Amino acid sequence: MLIFYFKNHKKITTTSNGIHPIVFKSFLVMQFWNTVNTILNFCATRIPNTSVFTSFCVSLGPDTFFRFVLFGLYVTFNNAQFFTGLFCSIRVMIMYTLVNQNTLCQRLFWSWSAISYFISVLYSLPITFDSVLCTQLDWPFQDGAIIISSAFLSGNARMSNLLFGLSTFVIVVIVITTVMVIVKLRSKAMKEASHRSLRRAKAETTLTVTMILIIIPSLLAQGLLIANLNKSPYYSFILCVRPLMLDLRVHVVSIYFYLTHPLFKKKVGTSPSTLAVKSFGSATY
């Protein structure tokens, strides 16, 4: 999808393919940060969970380079959360505004991006100045299974509450915007517009299902965070489900979007260059 965007971003200047270019851009940025976060999560959680590299992890020492891996882990996590909210918010803005869509979306995208990057770096920067911890996991994990975390965040109630507030904010944004999208799609005008274009209807379905797919793992991840804050005795069991939720959130969303959205399918009887037809004022989302 990134290759497709860089090759065709100048042509995707309208909503003829059922998606606004800013919505597409925000989706790609969201999934980029989610994918990078998943890769870093392998280094800090999944691989140490296997107990294969426990001796190596323990020998890293408190002032190891791994502090910067943890810094990247939290920066990418926070960015992924923020841009998930942006993706849903921009789609709602396009559906409920009729004029100056491009200008409004551009302003929201760049202002939200600047604020997101600033907060993400500011939240994660103290990690680079503190030591690294290796924590032994309880049953049902095998003996030697650990997670690598920051001493700055471990037991830091203020930072944990801040992270909880951030994730709660994103979930509320996703739920509200998804409900607003469904209400709009069920309106009479939208139904009539969708019936006139099968391609548009498929695009709207893909975007709506994508938003719903994002909600499910986000809610379960929030449950894990709540269990951690409350020091639940079932935290280890919930932690076992976490990799599945990450996979569902990152990989399934990307694969579903790519395989189902009409943007990535050539129109029958047209050349590949005919990607754009209508103006920004078109009522497609």
Question: In a nutshell, what does this entry contain?
Answer:
With about 280 residues, the protein is mainly alpha-helical.
Describe the protein's architecture and organization:
With 285 residues, the protein is mainly α. The chain has a single domain, classed as Rhopdopsin 7-helix transmembrane proteins, CATH 1.20.1070. The chain contains 9 helices and 2 strands; from the N terminus they run H-H-H-H-H-E-E-H-H-H-H. It has helices at residues 2-8, 21-49, 54-58, 66-96, 101-124, 157-185, 188-196, 198-229, 235-260, and strands spanning 132-136, 146-150. Strands 1-2 form a two-stranded antiparallel ribbon. The protein is elongated and about 60 Å long. Residues 268-285 have low confidence and may be disordered.
* Helix/sheet category: mainly alpha
Order of helices and strands: HHHHHEEHHHH
**What would CATH call the homologous superfamily?**
Rhodopsin 7-helix transmembrane proteins
Give a quick account of the main beta sheet: strands, pairing sense, barrel closure: 2 strands, antiparallel
Count of alpha/pi helices: 9
- Rg (CA only): 21 Å
Shape: elongated
Query: Mean of residue pLDDT?
Result: 77
Can you tell me the residue ranges where pLDDT is under 50 for at least 5 consecutive residues? 268-285
User: How are the strands of the biggest sheet laid out side by side?
Assistant: 1-2
Q: What fraction of residues sit in β-strands?
A: under 5%
Query: Span between N and C termini?
Result: 18 Å
Q: Approximately how much helix is present in the residues?
A: 55-70%
- How many domains? The number is 1
Which architecture does the CATH hierarchy give at level 2?
Answer: Up-down Bundle
Q: What is the count of β-strands?
A: 2
CATH top-level class? Mainly Alpha
Would you tell me which CATH topology applies? Rhopdopsin 7-helix transmembrane proteins
